[in-house]
Amino acid sequence: MKPPSSRSLVAGILTLVSLALLVLSLSGFLESLQGLALRPVAAAQEWIAVRAATLRNLLAAPGDVVTLRQQNAELQAEVARLQREVITLREQAAEAEILGGLLNYARSKPESRYLAANVIGRDVSPYLRSIWIGSGTDDGIARGMPVVTERGLVGRVVEAFPTAARVQLIIDPQAAVNVRLQDSRADGVTVAQPNGELRMDQINQGVDVAAGELVLTSGLGGGFPADIIVGQVASVRTRDYELFQQAVLQPGVDFENLEIVLVIASFQPLPAEAGGT
Amino acid sequence: MAYVLGIPLMLVLAILQSAVFSHVRLIAGQADLVLLAVVAWGLTGRWREAMVLGLVGGASLDLLSALPLGISSLALVLIAYVVSVTEGRLWGAHLLTPLGVVLATSLAFSVFTLVGSLIAGAAVDLPGAASRIILTGLFLNLLLAIPAAQLASAVQRLLFPPQVEIA
């Protein structure tokens, strides 16, 4: 029998290592190791994410940057210095605006204790809608804690490591939130579609739902506190032969541009809700 | 030397993928930086390093994802193995060869990612995923394929200059 080539041997060994990692990971044995590995990675991720956000803001800045660059040669150095200053100030202003909004939100609900956290990354798989925040169990964050911004519900912490945590967004198809229509008081559950659309399901047929109506968390099930904004009704689908109506929701939160979020640290979800999704 | 540079690079690429390239999306697809790096290095003929970098790069990606740790490693080790079978001859054959290799490996990697996401419990709309994620990601990978291969080739020549024996 022909012996395997050294290439096949190396590939075989590395494949076995990968499979071992996979089995250990699926069995949950690698969680502490992942936490340890994430410590330096999360720090680097945060460093890069902050600078990338600054660069994005620079690229998205209005055209006056271009105009300034066209000034005469004498002023160019000064312009460049001012530009840098402007960018820094814009960045600080944007951050202050976000923090101001979050602070107002926190003040409006003083019964809860909040922890602010930077968004440092997104899930690298395009099929899973979750974000990484740069705070973890070292800061008091635990699995199951709801995450919000001043514009509404973002999601829930589903994995917490010492220096980072993963937040499952409410637009992830695995996430479900018990919600209530603000005016008609009808209860339902949000169901996210794989294409990113957020729907409210299980609305009783007799309820009159209007576009534009606000959708809030109901607090049922103990997974989220009540009365957090989830979104607005964009359209309603009613079919006579179905038990329930469905509403397409426009989420309050812009999930593409999350920079800082608030984790509701004082909220204790029911154990089943904290563990599940 | 290749490991000293390559292993941290894999980690950095995975972080860039999560922190930066997740915002640079075409519809819902994004370029797979780690895959491109592993394939590009495999095309230079350095098969052993390509496989090890595949293992490390895959683990780094899985660390920053809800995917089970090891799924991307498995995919990238196997991809590096298949690419390595060419012994670097493909790259010399034609300048556009990396496009074909990246096309095939991107599809294979997408399938692995899809399976990993299903294992992780994701609900996937397959037709939607094919058009919005896989095809657009493939396009971005193809755009970066030739620069990545040329960069890898240049780095390989820099680190391992060809030895010439003078009789």
Structural class by sheet pairing and helices of chain B: mainly alpha
Tell me the greatest interface.
Answer: A-B, 50 and 58 residues
Proportion of residues in helical segments of chain A: 25-40%
Quaternary organisation of the protein chains:
heterodimer
SSE pattern of chain A: HHHHEEEEEEEEEEEEH
N-C termini distance of chain B: 29 Å
**Which geometry of chain A do the CA atoms define?**
globular
For the residues shown, what is the average pLDDT of chain B? 84
* Class by SSE composition of chain A: alpha+beta
Outline of chain B, from the CA principal axes?
globular
Cα-to-Cα separation, first versus last residue of chain A = 52 Å
What descriptors fit this protein?
heterodimer, A: alpha+beta, 6-stranded antiparallel barrel, 6-stranded antiparallel beta barrel, 5 helices, 12 strands, B: mainly alpha, 7 helices
Q: How would you describe this structure to a colleague?
A:
The complex is a heterodimer of chains A (277) and B (167). Chain A is α+β, with helices and mostly antiparallel strands. Chain A has five helices and twelve strands. Chain A has helices at residues 6-26, 31-59, 64-69, 73-108, 271-275; strands at 114-122, 130-133, 146-149, 152-160, 165-169, 178-181, 187-192, 198-204, 214-217, 229-237, 244-251, 260-264. In chain A, the strands form two sheets. In chain A, strands 1-2-5-4-3-12 form a six-stranded antiparallel beta barrel. In chain A, strand 7 and strand 8 (198-204) form a beta hairpin. In chain B, 73% of the residues lie in helices and 0% in strands.
